Amino acid sequence: SGPRAAMYAGLQELGVANGEDLKETLTNCTEPLKAIEQFQTENGVLLPSLQSALPFLDLHGTPRLEFHQSVFDELREKLLERVSAIALEGKVEERYKKLEDLLEKSFSLVKMPSIQPVVMCVMKHLPKVPEKKLKLVMADKDLYKACAVEVKRQIWQDNQALFGDEVSPLLKQYILEKENILFSNDVSVLHNFFTPSPKTRRQGEVVQKLTQMIGKNVKLYDMVLQFLRTLFLRTRNVHYCTLRAELLMSLHDLDISEICTVDPCHKFTWCLDACIREKFVDNKRARELQGFLDGVKKGQEQVLGDLSMILCDPFAINTLALSTIRHLQDLVGQDTLPRESPDLLLLLRMLSLGQGAWDMIDSQVFKEPKMEAELITKFLPMVMSFVVDDHMFTVDQKLPSEEKGPIPYPSAIPEAYTKFLQENRIACEIGLYYFLHITKLRNKNAFLRLLPALAETFSDLAFSDIFLHLLTGNLTLLGDEFALEEFCTSLFDGFFLTVCSRKENVHRHVLRLLLHLHHKVAPTKLESLQKALEPTKQSGEAVKELYNQLTEKLELRKPSPAEVTETPPMELPLPAVPTPTSR
Fold first, then answer.
1. Is the pTM of this model over 0.70?
2. Where does residue 406 fall: left (phi above 0), alpha (psi -120 to 50 degrees), or beta otherwise?
3. Domain ranges of the chain
4. Which terminus of the chain has fewer Cβ atoms in its 10 Å neighbourhood, N or C?
5. pLDDT digits over 371-419, tens only?
């Protein structure tokens, strides 16, 4: 009687006869046929004109059930249309009063599959479903699942735990998607983690689903932000910062002013979003961003926590760092020192705020981090001196060589530079981006000169996934250098292999790189690398899988033993006559 009972759920309360009543009538009567006829008359469609038409349908062999079902479906469609119309017509109070009355009458049938869509439709159009009804829906798993997101929002806003259960799998999926991109087998300088535009990223499934779940509900938006802050604190995973910005901009795309106007970061994020799209902070936008930072009033410092999270988004850091490198090169051409460039100082200020996000949210001390003077007076001029060294070397190469021979490329790096990369987070970030920059320019000399400084960096930033993802992509441009012993020894033995055994992510990135470039590597070096990179018992599945792929590729490249040892048998010792094709 389970599914049967569900079919008639709630009819009795409305005084409508159901299957059980018919069963009872038939059990207790003497003339079943008469009883059935009476039941049909009492519960059929009460239209006088129908009485003569029904026997006509009987003649055509159309079962009454089919007829009643089609009438029912037709009426239900009309009712659904009417409910949607009521929700839009007349005065606000009146229309909602009508819908509330309708809900009161129909709610007892909510478990009846054929009527359920109507009840759900009424609830969907009510901005405030009565608390009692929401509780009943929440208590029943099937009803909760069947109700529209508009109704769920009303349930969620007072049930943070339930909302958390709905959001949590989406956040997990989001982080997984980001990691899959960073570790993808596609190693390329043209398509990397930062290639998709902000607008494209916001079309992603998770952002779209969260946007839909939040609707215009500020309370739910705040809850999601709270989840993101908590997870960022718990894991230090910067992808949560990306999602924070993407979600706000997704609501901005839909013109949801109810939320955008109350998020104090909205205009700042909107302006920064435009910079990220261009991968550069131009002067006009720099002024705008500075205006927002300078405009943080006393008593509202807490907004800095949110702004720092927006600036901690890797896409923001990437844009700020690329802009910084570009500024430093321009300053070399203008004979200007870093401290004399307000634009550069603003970029550093924002980098500093972004890099300090975790500490600020953790300590709840909302003030901008102090910038070390030496970063500006010592470190950045050092980076500029590297740019100058490259210019000088290029010019030297073009000059007619005197007796003293060509001037060698400077190989030493100032000890202070290495120290900055180890001890100062912002210096380290800029140093890494400068290194990516010279790699992209295929500047092998600068690459080999600066690589040793990356062996030890601030909180191992040189071994972070985003940096290694970009570095492996840029290294494809230096493919031909992999045939050289000196280059491979510096890159693999001096850098990658120093941490492979204790950092699984580095192991993965090296294997990704070799899968892509193995055919460029000198055979003896490749052999020793294959041995060094063999997975251990502790290695994860991803490493083993990549290693197997690499081994398969290398097997395919090896000539088979037969080809190497046997010379084809010849009947007669023919003289070596050059054939026309080999000329």
1. yes
2. beta
3. 44-130, 157-373, 409-551
4. C
5. 999 999 999 999 999 999 999 998 888 887 766 667 889 999 999 999 9
